[in-house]
Design a protein that fits this description.
By secondary structure, this protein is mainly beta. The chain has one domain. The protein contains 4 helices and 14 strands. Strand 11 and strand 12 form a beta hairpin.
Length: about 200
Amino acid sequence: MFRMTVCSVFAALMVGACSGAEPGAQPAPGSQQNEAVTETVAAGLQGQSWSLSSELFGYFLPQEDVSIGTIQLDHISLSMQWEAEAYMNGEADAYPPIGLSFDDTSSPTGTGELGNTYYEVTHWIQPDMFAVNDEGMQFAGSHDLLGEIRFSGTWNRAHIDEMMAGNPQNAQQALTGTLMVGDVVFSDVAFQGWLGD
């Protein structure tokens, strides 16, 4: 079984709140539940590999609703090159270079230091099976509540260049790929590239 490291806020509450794990949960419009598609998402992925020839890091924000029940994908993050190299070299205190943040949109909200609204119940997931290169990235793992999670996507080099230049408004399709959460497949999802604040 693949493994993903999970850090949940109010974990006990999430057991009842994660309706994405329930058989009757409704996926977002435009998603697919297709066994043939499911079997092809990051098919054959094993181990870990990182082979980017230039710096690429930041956040990838889905440009459409990627949710099951009240659980919604907020972003995928990619670490800086030196951070990824530290992890791949087995250095102490290094973290996996890919992360996913899911919000429980039924949870209470708060206001951050920058005036942003956030959900108090989130899942932060770091898969430890991945492949990242100049063409795109893939990852796979499993989650106790959401089930198997797999992704396969490709970079749009022109949009990546805009992202790395600090122009997120011109990076609306920096990454496009297919995400599987449990038995729900979200196909051809476009992700905006953003370096963060």
